[in-house]
Each structure stands twice: as C-alpha cells, then as structure tokens.
Amino acid sequence: MLAVGAHPDDIEIGCGATLLTLAARPGTTVRGVVLTGSDARVQEATGALAAFVPGAALEAHAFPDGRLPAHWEAVKDVLHELATRAAPDVVLCPGPGDAHQDHRLLGQLVPTVWRDALVLHYEIPKWDADLHPPTHYVPVSPDMARRKVALLDAHYPSQHDRDWWDEELFLGLMRLRGVECKSRYAEAFSAHKVVLDLG
C-alpha cells in the first residue's frame, strides 16, 4: 500500500484509522510519501506514520507548500520515479476535486502514474467546504477512531493552534461517514475507476 500526501498530516487526517486497521493485519506493508514540508513538519510526519503503521517508511520532498501546481513537471517526475520502486496494490491520496491546489494536483496525477493499482481518494475537512459524496467506506471501531485522534494530537503539535484542529472535527466526520455505512465510525474514499477481477 502507498499513501501519498501533499503535506505532513494529510495522510493521517485522511486515512489514519484505515491505516491503523490495516496495520493490525499481518502481511500489510505501507510506504508513505509527502511532497511539501519544513524539516520540523517532516519529522512530525515521520513519527506519525511510524506510530500509525509500525515499520512504515516515509519519503519526504521539499516542494513549497501551496505551490505544487507551479512545479507540475517536477512533481510528476517524482511520482514516476517512485513508481519504479513501488508497485502497490492500493494507493491512497487526496481527491482530484479537493479545493486545495496541492491536494487537487496529486489527486489528478496519482491515477495517471499507478494505472494498475486501486486508487482511493481520501477526504480532508477544511474551510473550503469541498467534501463530496464518497463511493467507498472503511468502517472503523470506536477504539481505532479515538486512537487516530490521539495519535494526530500527539504527533502534530505544530497544528494545535489551528482553529479546525480538534477532536470534534475528526471524530465528527468519521461519525457521519459511519452513519452512511451503518457503522459507528468510518473513513470514506472515492474512486474514479475500480477493476473487479472475478477470475
């Protein structure tokens, strides 16, 4: 499994409970990559991913935050080079309809790079009110949902002063997605194309 984020914390916000659930299953390997971030933020992300998925490796790049579209060609090159080293079955990344330009670019590029993988686009709540109806759900237990929130808080102290960074938001979105799939909590994803191998 490959988890792609534009910024440190994107991966854990978007699919942290899913990663926690998968980490409990033997045989699952996860690699993470983030495209922007200061050294301090990358350190936070490295510790966070290792806490969510013990043994997971994080690869970080230093593109400027908020400016990924201006570096389209270089970002595409980074993803293609990564694809020579990583052939995941599943890729988790932001969505192509995300209002944040960095997220949106990755949501557009990732499916063009990993054409043979299942690409699931995670959602990141924000001021822009850009959440869309999802197509896929991962039910998560209350323990996993609360653990996600606790790990986010423990590993991203630089974000504590954000007005949106709180337990109510993270649990609230998971609770809403849980209602939509008859679970207490869930994380939701969208997929543009899914291939069902019935052989």
UniProtKB/TrEMBL annotation:
SUPFAM superfamilies in the cross-refs: LmbE-like
Family annotation (Pfam families): PIG-L
Keywords, sorted A to Z: Zinc
Coiled-coil annotated spans: none
Database matches in InterPro entries: GlcNAc_PI_deacetylase-related (IPR003737), LmbE-like_dom_sf (IPR024078)
Name of the molecule in the record: PIG-L family deacetylase
